[in-house]
Amino acid sequence: MSGPLLLRDVLKTAEERLAAAGCASPRLDVRLLAEEALGWSRTALLLDGDRPVSAEAQAALATLVDRRAAREPVSRILGKREFWSLEFRLAPDTLDPRPDTETLVETALRHLPDGQRPRRLLDLGTGSGCILLALLSELPGAWGLGVDIAPGAARAAAANAKALGFASRSAFLVGSWTDALGAGARFDAIVSNPPYIPAADIAGLEPEVRTFDPMRALDGGADGLDPYRHLAAVAGDLLLPSGLLAVEHGAGQGADVAALFAAAGLEVLERVDDLAGHDRVVAARRLG
Hints:
Keywords: Methyltransferase, S-adenosyl-L-methionine, Transferase. By secondary structure, the chain is of the alpha/beta class. It is built from 11 helices and 11 strands. It has 2 domains: 7-70, Orthogonal Bundle (Helicase, Ruva Protein, domain 3); 81-286, Vaccinia Virus protein VP39 (Rossmann fold), CATH 3.40.50.150.
């Protein structure tokens, strides 16, 4: 792109480039990238089509469009993602939060009434911290601990907690699952969006996921259920009586996850579909 082109032409060319690259929502992607590259408001992008775009601005947008055409997600390019109406900064070690995961937050909140009640929450595989911090935003009496095996993820989650005003009500540890926890740690609720993709299926995922999400946040073992076996084994020791375990899982895995929890002596409370109608969340509780 060079010369004094008009905004509508610049956007049209960029949109055509992304469509040809196989991007699912080229128009929306271009608008988001243009906001970043040009520094113009969304309203200006929609209404000021006759506005000339400088060569420098065209080049800045072209750089971002090139990255998206290589199937890098817009959220990775911008370094941020909105989740639960909160803004989360991303890092290479963090999973890119998806709207489906809000189903996990909604489910956990349904089983955690009285937001003022003091509670201790545990988020295993916290990533950006989006699940834990979304819950803290709705449960003002709660305190939360996030654990992630990736140091970069724990740092990103802690930075998000500080930016969102939850630093005093949260802490983040680096460790493999529950290995980072001290003896006798007990929680009112455990939440997790663990790796659940069967290892053999990863090569067939969309490039946005396969190439740009951290592999250890995707690979759930041969059948995708290894993390749930671990959670079932440790939940009874980590939960207080009647404590909640709520997890996200892949489509079609709900029955197996529920069976693992029931076999471990947990009471399965419900299985929940996401907005697309796919089974997405299992909620259970410790008896006693």
